[in-house]
Design a protein that fits this description.
Largest sheet: 2 strands, antiparallel
Distance between the termini: 44 Å
GO molecular function: heme binding; metal ion binding; peroxidase activity
Order of helices and strands: HEEHHHHEHHEEHHHHEH
Cofactor: heme b; Ca(2+)
Structural class: mainly alpha
CATH architecture: Orthogonal Bundle
Pfam family, one: peroxidase
Radius of gyration: 18 Å
EC number: 1.11.1.-
Number of strands: 6
Enzyme class: oxidoreductase
Length: 280
Amino acid sequence: MAKSPACPAVWTQVSSHLTGMFLSNGQCNDDARAAIRAAFHDCGTWDNTQGEHGGCDGSLVLAQEYLLPQSQPLEDISNKLLAVAQQFKVSVADTLAFAGAHAIVTCPGGPTVQTFVGRKDNSTAGPVTLLPGAFDSGDSLFTLFENKGFDKVDLAALVGAHTSSKQFLVNTADAGQSQDSTPGTWDVKFYSDTTNPPPGTFVFQSDINLANHPVVGPEFKGFVNGQGKWNGKFADAMKRMLLLGVPGGSANLIDCTNALPKATPLNKVKRQLNPFSPRN
């Protein structure tokens, strides 16, 4: 069997640059959460009717899909990541996927998602109607993700990315409110905060609908207090998310997982925030 090609050295440089963008005071910042969402929105305009077209192709930026209501407010991060792609002379599609994976592991507690490069850029807009909405029913979300190749466990795990998110446009009066109480870290508080939200958090109706869904709901609730379980399921589903629409999947790409930063354990961050807390 032929040896897999090594990750191009430029991605180590890209990774170092992104760390400077995504990390503030030891936690993931607004650019990091926007990059995670941007990766979802670039890839998520794909379903199984499209075959090896669309999906993770950079069209979020190159076709300015970020100007459409479904992908706002992603214009700022889209332009920042376009500048990264241009600076390092790599594809926009790869930059979006790599940046999403980088931002996830930059968040303390975040898993390492196996990440590949070699995607082709495309400036034709994808069908943004294939993106989930903040008011979607549990049934519609289940069908939407099933048509992308994800099952009930995948969906419950992927929506957990809201652990690091903030909303700005669903309710402008509460712009900037987070979807769980610890948006700077990658933890499972989102799952308990969705059903019992503490003050200052904003819960999407779609997340409530998934938590109460007869098929997805038990998987959703199964991640409460299950950090390791969730990280494993999320990393597997996100790896596949970042390959949607890519011809041949990972077979024709180069593995650049080793260019990502090392994961930061959650308990390390908790001790930094409270040096008197016990070591687990």
